[in-house]
Amino acid sequence: MSAIRLSKVLFSRVSQAARFPQQFAAPTIRCYSCETNNFEHIKTETTGEKKNVGLITLNRPKALNALCKGLMDELDHALKHFDANPAIGAIVLTGNEKAFAAGADIKEMMNNTYTINEKNNFLQNWENISKIKKPIIAAVNGYALGGGCELALTCDIIYAGDKARFGQPEIAIGTMPGGGGSQRLPRFIGKSKSMELVLSGNPITAEEAERSGLVSRVFPADKLVAEAVKLGEKISSHSPIIVSLAKKAVNAAYETSLQHGLNYEKQLFYGTFATADQKEGMAAFTEKRPPKFTNE
Ligand code: CAA
User: Fold this and answer.
1) pLDDT above 50 for 190
2) What pLDDT score was predicted for residue 6?
3) Alpha-carbon torsion (240, 243, 245, 247), positive or negative
4) Which has fewest Cβ within 10 Å: 17, 31, 146, 171?
5) How far apart are CA 182 and CA 169, in angstroms?
6) pLDDT, position 267
7) pLDDT number for residue 217
8) 31: exposed, middle or buried (C-beta count within 10 Å: 0-12, 13-18, 19+)?
9) Considering the domain boundaries, does residue 146 fall inside one?
10) From the CB of 153, is ligand 1 less than 6 Å away?
11) Domain limits for position 260
12) Ligand 1 center to 117 CA (angstroms)
């Protein structure tokens, strides 16, 4: 290839890369560690009196915790880390007072094409969150919009601060929910309210979210995380294996028919009798003492 031809090819590749950086992004290899907390977009700690609650704080305040790929990769890593840690019984996921998360990162995805989304399985890894066995409590202050609302919906329990706002505003930027909102919202709050959220883009308040069943409790903003941790501690005081079976049973209710779900629940219930923790729990009750669960 002549020097002129080579420079033309290079120029065209560089200018294309500048216009569509997501096609050319070299895979980044990063070594995250919850022990060293060397994350860029999140913070992690173990908390609670017995250090049995994993706390993950989304930490991209300048972008209102917009869920860029780097943040979602780190979140995936931290969730798996806490899920595998036998000392942790529950996980709390939070943001800051202004935003839990204002959605997927619009600036990062705005030049995506259909082909890029399809080839890169865009948003597919968001579903990994629903595979975590331990309960995840979302403690939502401020905005939970678009992917931020969907992230909260993927958690098991949502506690909200009194100034929280939940919404699916994607329609206003020429798209629609892609992280589960159009499917989970109707199952949680019914069709009419879901349609209103998704088609108008208007957010709802924490109070309205609680009334709709989207949120289980509302607290003053500054008390929210402590309350979520308290709930995490309570959950962590139970047998982890039984907690994970109970979580599976409730989640099955959203994915199956009533009859199938009832049968599934019964099998899980029978199964608890194969565990040492069921024997211990019931023995402790009859002996009027606190149980000592061993996760066996
Ligand atoms: N992506 C990227 N950046 C975002 C963002 C997002 N989703 N939301 C906010 N930001 C950035 C803003 O661009 C701004 O950055 P600069 O200072 O560099 O300009 C910074 O965060 C602060 O935001 P604002 O200045 O807009 O703050 P505000 O208080 O005036 O408004 C807001 C707050 C109403 C939440 C507004 O930021 C907003 O509407 N954000 C977008 C919400 C949205 O549309 N979310 C859906 C995204 S699409 C999606 O999530 C798809 C899916 O289903 C997965």
Assistant:
1) yes
2) 47
3) negative
4) 31
5) 12
6) 98
7) 98
8) exposed
9) yes
10) no
11) 240-287
12) 21
Q: What average pLDDT does the structure give for the chain?
A: 92
Q: How confident is the model at residue 98 (pLDDT cuts 50, 70, 90)?
A: very high
Determine the Cα–Cα distance for residues 130 and 83; give it in Å rounded to an integer: 12
Give the predicted TM-score (pTM) of the model. Answer: 0.90
Together in a domain, 130 and 244: no
Rounded to the nearest angstrom, the distance between the alpha carbon of 95 and the centre of ligand 1 is 14
- Asked if residue 181 has pLDDT above 50, the reply is yes
State if residue 66 touches ligand 1 by the CB under 6 angstroms criterion: yes
pLDDT value at 32 more than 90: no
Identify which of 92, 90, 126, 217 has the alpha carbon closest to the alpha carbon of residue 164: 217
Q: What is the pLDDT of residue 37?
A: 76
The answer to whether the CB of 54 is under 6 A from ligand 1 is no
Q: How far apart are CA 243 and CA 52, in angstroms?
A: 14
223 and 244 together in one domain: no
CA of 63 to the centre of ligand 1 (A): 7
pLDDT score of 262 more than 90 = yes
pLDDT of residue 1: 45
Just list the catalytic residues.
104, 147, 150, 170
Pair 244, 118 in one domain: no
CA of 101 from ligand 1 middle (Å) equals: 9
Integer Cα distance of 114 and 46 in angstroms:
40
Tokens of 83: 């899920």
For the Cβ of 158 lying below 6 angstroms from any atom of ligand 1, the answer is no
- Do 74 and 208 sit in the same domain of this protein? yes
Count of structural domains within the chain: 2
Kindly state whether residue 5 falls inside one of the protein's structural domains. Answer: no
CATH code at 116? Answer: 3.90.226.10
* Closest C-alpha to 211, from 186, 193, 187, 230: 193
Pocket test for ligand 1, best of 106, 121, 153 (most atoms within 8 A of CB): 106
- 124 pLDDT more than 90: no
> Is 151 close to ligand 1, i.e. is its CB under 6 Å away?
no
